[in-house]
Design a protein that fits this description.
- This protein is an alpha/beta fold and 461 residues long.
- The protein has 4 domains: 89 residues, DnaA, N-terminal domain (GMP Synthetase, Chain A, domain 3), CATH 3.30.300.180; 181 residues, P-loop containing nucleotide triphosphate hydrolases (Rossmann fold), CATH 3.40.50; 74 residues, Orthogonal Bundle (Helicase, Ruva Protein, domain 3); 92 residues, Chromosomal Replication Initiator Protein Dnaa, Chain: A (Orthogonal Bundle), CATH 1.10.1750.10.
- The protein has 23 helices and 8 strands.
- The strands form 2 sheets. A 5-stranded parallel β-sheet has the order 5-6-7-4-8, with helices on both faces. The protein has a 3-stranded mixed β-sheet with strand order 1-2-3.
- Helix 8 packs parallel to helix 9.
- The relative contact order is 0.07.
- About 8% of the residues have low confidence.
- The chain binds adenosine-5'-triphosphate.
- Adenosine-5'-triphosphate (ATP) binds next to helix 9 and helix 16.
- Pfam families: Bac_DnaA (PF00308), Bac_DnaA_C (PF08299), DnaA_N (PF11638).
- One of its GO terms (biological process) is DNA replication initiation.
Length: 461
């Protein structure tokens, strides 16, 4: 058991950030192992719950690899440690603010009262690893990046608010931290705050409970830069929206910069007050799209290099061709590949990648089939699936069919003739025409782009 824990800890140390490792893995202790059952203790309920949701499956995976057998890994509270500790130790160690919901939050994130302090770099919650330099640019995000740089160079002047939207894991959070970092370099005394919308809602609730709205307002209204992530979480939260409205008006009037991200464009956010929606759209609204193949390859090569590993182009292309949805998924795949190759002492080849990612690849292959695309597109446009194969050509059928062909080319490995065959035996030139037409429409027409974006997100689950 001790040997396993040593190997497992060493492995997780490679895969996680130092902060994550010391906050969540270091405090764990293996308790006992017998008959395929391994028990690991955590020092408090908070860590226990977090480890169970975030790391249990990876630790189980490593245990199965280590013993080459089915292992039941159980996480339990260590009663001895629990009694010995004072309650304040129940909070996690201080770590960088998460760049995604997957990442750990600092203790202040759990205790909203501490926000009322001078926000120098620490209090700004800006993650200094997320910079423009570490952000890979491609067609999918070049507009958003250009806007972000413009805002970082002229905060409060050029585009206010800057509203960035796009699907999960596409780099919205990264980009807004990059703006924060840039502004802090130019002006280290700038009063900056990055906050996830869920945390803002919790802060409003705390202010409400403590009758502390004056303090809350004083703090938010005095910022130079407010970065608010995933604003769709405000949906249906009227008091939060009202408070945010006041903060918004105060900051814009004082020419202080506001940057907002969301999973969709302003008018599409449901449960949001109209006056807020119209204000979101009053500066510049830019989309971040899912990365195209070349960009996915560039991201993989860059991130592998950051890990000190050289990926061959073949391997990077293989991974990028199979994992198309978002950058977070690419990062996860890269971590798995590195862990697998280190654990088994194997070089990174396409075969090793196939083995390391076999679960992920089989899910991808299962999810995105041409049939699945035809059904999803037909449902979306409220038409019969049979019309995907029929010879009928009215515009209300022909266009969704072209969209389905385009998605089949984008999201599956099928060739043009194979796709034509699956669309009622059409010629490959018909498919090519559809792909070109929808590609052109997408680049010119934001509504078309949005429809496709929604369909892609639906198909990728
Ligand atoms: N263009 C990029 N170059 C380098 N890394 C990127 C890029 N885009 C995203 N990432 C990385 O991918 C991960 C996910 O990105 P991020 O958290 O910014 O996504 P998001 O759009 O905010 O997603 P969500 O809506 O789920 O919060 C992060 O680790 C981020 O650094």
């Amino acid at each position: 058991m001790e040997n396993f824990w040593q190997a497992c800890s060493a492995q997780l140390e490679q895969e996680l950030t130092p902060q994550q490792f010391s906050a969540w893995i270091k405090p764990l202790t293996p308790l006992d192992y017998s008959e395929g059952k391994l028990r690991i203790t955590a020092p408090n309920r908070f860590k226990l719950d977090w480890v169970k949701t975030q790391f249990a499956s990876r630790i189980t995976e490593l245990a199965i690899q280590f013993w080459d057998d089915q292992i039941d890994v159980q996480f339990i509270l260590d009663p001895r440690l629990n009694v010995a500790r004072k309650p304040s130790h129940d909070l996690p160690a201080t770590v960088d603010i998460g760049t995604s919901p997957d990442e750990v939050r600092s203790p202040e994130e759990v205790r909203p009262t501490t926000i009322i302090e001078t926000p120098k770099r620490d209090q700004s919650r800006i993650n200094n690893a997320l910079t423009f330099d570490s952000f890979v640019t491609g067609k999918a995000n070049q507009l958003a990046r250009a806007a972000a740089i413009q805002v970082a160079n002229n905060p409060g002047v050029s585009y206010n608010p800057l509203f960035l939207y796009g699907g999960v894991g596409l780099g919205k959070t990264h980009l807004i931290h990059a703006i924060g970092n840039q502004i802090l370099i130019d002006n280290p005394n700038a009063k900056i705050r990055y906050i996830h919308a869920e945390q803002y809602v919790r802060d409003v609730v705390t202010a409400y409970q403590r009758k502390g709205f004056d303090e809350f307002k004083r703090y938010y209204h005095s910022l130079d830069l407010l970065l608010i992530d995933d604003i769709q979480f405000f949906a249906g939260k009227n008091r939060t929206q009202e408070e945010f409205f006041y903060a918004f008006e105060a900051l814009i009037a004082a020419k202080k910069q506001i940057i907002i991200t969301s999973d969709t464009y302003p008018k599409q956010i449901t449960g949001m007050d109209d006056r807020l929606i119209s204000r979101f759209d009053s500066g510049l609204t830019v989309a971040i799209e899912p990365p195209e193949l070349e960009m996915r390859v560039a991201i993989l090569l860059k991130k592998a290099k950051q890990e000190g590993v050289v990926f061959s182009d073949d391997v990077a292309f293989f991974v990028a061709k199979h994992l198309r949805s978002n950058v977070r998924e690419l990062e996860g795949a890269l971590r798995k590949i590195l862990a697998y190759s280190r654990f088994h002492g194997k070089d990174i080849t396409i075969d090793v990648v196939k083995e390391a990612l076999k679960d992920l690849l089989s899910v991808q292959n299962r999810q995105i089939s041409v049939e699945n695309i035809q059904k999803t597109v037909a449902d979306f446009f409220n038409m019969k699936v049979a019309d995907m194969y029929s010879k009928r050509r009215p515009a209300n059928i022909a266009r969704p069919r072209q969209i389905a062909m385009y998605l089949a080319k984008e999201l599956t490995q099928k060739s043009l003739p194979e796709i034509g065959e699956l669309f009622g035996g059409r010629d490959h030139t018909t498919v090519l025409h559809a792909v070109r037409k929808i590609t052109a429409d997408r680049s010119k027409n934001p509504e078309c782009n949005h429809e496709l974006h929604v369909l892609e997100q639906t198909l990728k689950g």
